Amino acid sequence: MTHRNFALAGGKIGTIIAVLVLLVWSVGPIYWSLATSFTSPTDLISAEPHFWPADMTLEHYAKLFGSTSMSQGNKVASVWPQFSRAIINSVITSVAATFITVAIAAFAAYAFARMKFPGRNVLFFVVVGTLAIPAYTVMIPLYRLMIALHLVDTYVGVTLIYVSAFLPLALWLMRSVYQSMPLSLEEAAWMDGAGRVYTLVRIIMPLAAPGLIAAAIITFLNAWGQFLVPLVFSPTLTTKPLTVLIPEFVSRNYVDYGLINAAGIIAIIPPVLVVLFLNRFLVSGLMAGATK
Amino acid sequence: MKRRTFMAALAATAMLQVGVSGAALADDAKPLDGQHLSVLLPPWGTFPKEMTDQFTAETGVALESQTLGWDEIHTKIVTSMIANTAPASATEVDWSWVGQFGAAGWYSPLNDDFSEDVVKDVPTSKIFNYNGKLLALPYNNDFRVLIYNKAQLEKAGVAQPPKTPDELLEAAKAIKAAKIVDYPIGLPLSATEGTSTTWYLLTKAFGGDLFDKDFNPLFLDPNSGGYKALNFEVQALKDGLIDPSATGLKDVDVQELFKSGKVTFDVAGWAGNLSVYGDPSKSQVADDVSAALMPSTTGTTRTIGLPEAIGIPVSAENADAAKAFIKWMLKPETQINSYNSLGNLPPRLSVLKQLEEEGKLTNGKVLLEQAASVEPLFADGTPGWYPEFSSAVSAAINQAAKGQVSVEDALQQIADAAQSASQQ
Amino acid sequence: MASALTREKTRRFGGEASLGIAFVIPMVVIMGGLVLLPLLSTMIDSVYNVSPMRAGTPFVGFKNYIDLFSNTTVNQSWRNTFYYVVLAVVLETAGGLATALLLNKVKIGRRWLLAAVVLPWCLPPVVNAVVWMWIYNPSYGLLTGVLHSTGLMTGPSLFFNDRYVMLFLVTLVHVWRMMPLTAIILLAALQSIPKDLYQAARLDGASSFKCFRLITLPLISGGLAIALSQSTVFAFNLFDEAWILNRASLDTRTVIIQVYLDAFQNLKFSLGMALSLLAMLASLLVSLFYVLKVYRETRFD
Hints:
Order of helices and strands of chain A: HHHEEHHHHHHHHHH
Structural class of chain A: mainly alpha
Shape of chain A: globular
CATH topology of the largest domain in chain C: MetI-like fold
CATH class of the largest domain in chain C: Mainly Alpha
Low-confidence stretches of chain A: 285-292
Largest sheet of chain A: 2 strands, antiparallel
Shape of chain C: flat
Oligomer: heterotrimer
């Protein structure tokens, strides 16, 4: 009995150590970025690395949020209108891409997992195989196509490209989730006379929530971090996201490390909120009832 | 000081107004009124709103600015032009892209649109000629000077900034011996463009050139400027005058070292960077920074210009509005405003002189003298294979600095790269 | 009776087929139009010589591909890429699996831990690059500082001079950024394992390790195959990390950097596209190998 308690305590300590290691690994560099965003430019190039700025400054955040900003020692117009616009663009395209991707994947993956139709396996292999296509491979023909459709610099255009890029992974993930679910659940519903669509939407999907949420998180974060696609397809602030705006804070003679890190810290907040919100569903779902 | 700037701005506005009403009398209206103009430029070419508002007031053209990083602009232009659409009506054209864009026929010649006086007043516009076609006009005037830390030099008992590469070495040895800094000479040796341009610059300092007229390499002979230049870099690294970790440093990293007082010489200093080095909020050596002419073995200083310009893609909409924008950009008032707000050294010599006379140019005398000695890296225009050649150059120098290959082999690699790049 | 059953079956099968097709139509339209058509166009371009710097686009057959195989620079970038793929996939899978198991086990504060785990993936790539450039900076970076203060290294930091160290440091940045993806895929797979299976195994007296080998591993094999494939594909596509830390240096240049240099910097468009198609083929083959292997092994267990 005591032996068992000892092992349990040992396990607990092991878990705590593992959590600490994981936190240092994940948050350490982010902490570095946070500290930099509070450090004044002259302190940044001091000889000794400081683990926390000796005198904290908010000047970099003031540059982002202030009514005027500084660039190369000159007072210039506030960057906040651009910055806020870019946040909105990032949120709109990422959220739209996530919804559309997960919706399409949820139905298509079910068809691949449970329904028989001609060409099923070939189609699945081809779609998932497109994961391996480097972005540069299709960029120029895609640009031609988007010009012809008048979709360059529109939310629709950028969102559609994101969907086409992230659908394969979401589809594969959802199919494996459906496949691992016991067939008996669906059969019971059909016995009760429920239609296939009804069964899928009302019974299967709620049970597959962890998979759906994982697919949503993956799609959202992939879209949020995109650089190459918006670089080419979002030329102006109409649709330009944060990832393309932030590098513009690098001027030729001077890399504004403080400003870039401050912008990066702000850019982390929306996806973290999304993850915190979605996480509730990621860990409930299928077996929530079974654990008592 | 503030007041004077304000008055100057006021005067400039007044002058502009006169200019506008004068033009209005002559043409009776703004012919381009109501047109839209998209312009694609890096952050340092994106003018503040007050300035572009002036342009709109003057011409009636509504300006839509697209800002992208420098590397990304090239990708963007290539993608769009291969898809047969203009990325914008007027775009950035870097000196190093001239050969490519010229050979591809992507940019409209501007020869007939600008008076010869203006073009002559912008000596760096030569760099943007491709087979006699003027592809773009410069909006800044970046060239290299020797930037150094005066206080450290004085501490080591060196009275004058070095005039020859040998004096540079001696000064560096004196500073190292006096333990003022560990590694006095700052230059990049990583596989980046800044490494290549530093070597080109030093080649000129040693009285050499990269190629002859037929693009035969001139740097293979141990007595050539290019050979001596690379040898200089590798030897200084071995002698501990250059930071051993320079093989991982880019030009901007070297600049950070200079700002923190860890190196005495920014050998391939960017003229426009003097204002950043002199700014106490960004630099710890603000009071000690000074500039000198590029050292030279021949007695005549030489330097290279690496300017950036604005051109008009062939398939651009509203090309006339784009021309009006370039004309506006070349106006003395615009250039002065651009220098004040973005730190772009004016490409027009007359404007540069004016600034120097008004005492607004830090180290103005040196800059002006150096500006007169600016030559293009390639006298007959940048060849289309330059980008490929240049990345081979930095890769080879990087290997030589790491001791993976000898100076001789590195230069042979560079020559081979030039040949294979130019053959395709 | 029998014929009625068959009729019933065909009716249901036909209905199922059309419903199934209806479910996949939106996907087919998007993937076909935005990915497969452009891919086809690029494949065609790769057997011509499309270069904007010269007139005409002559048909050259497989010359571009043959040129690529005999180019030493390209071969070097392949070797670097394979190094990245092996190292990144091993580290991401091991780390991601450990993270997912831990997240599955922790009860208190799990949502905060999960949020912390995905942080690296939320950081915009350029900020990520700036942070790691600071950490690796040979003059005043954190790595140099730590190595100096712990006495592991004295004198100037020369790790930029060692090819293998640089390859490892670039991989580390990539793993730091991409590991959360593997962790989330595996967490989702872990979440769908019925808990009563473990209870039954415990009653039979199975150890934790045995539970892991006999229940967890087979049941997450689907997720594992996905995680392995995606990390392989992302490692083959590695660009930002190597480019930002070391630009075009031959020591760390990847195949995709080579594609970028050929097609976009040097304007040898067809050559670059041919190389990008080879990169696609390579990552496809490696992924296929995993998928078949993982599925077969776990199925026979």
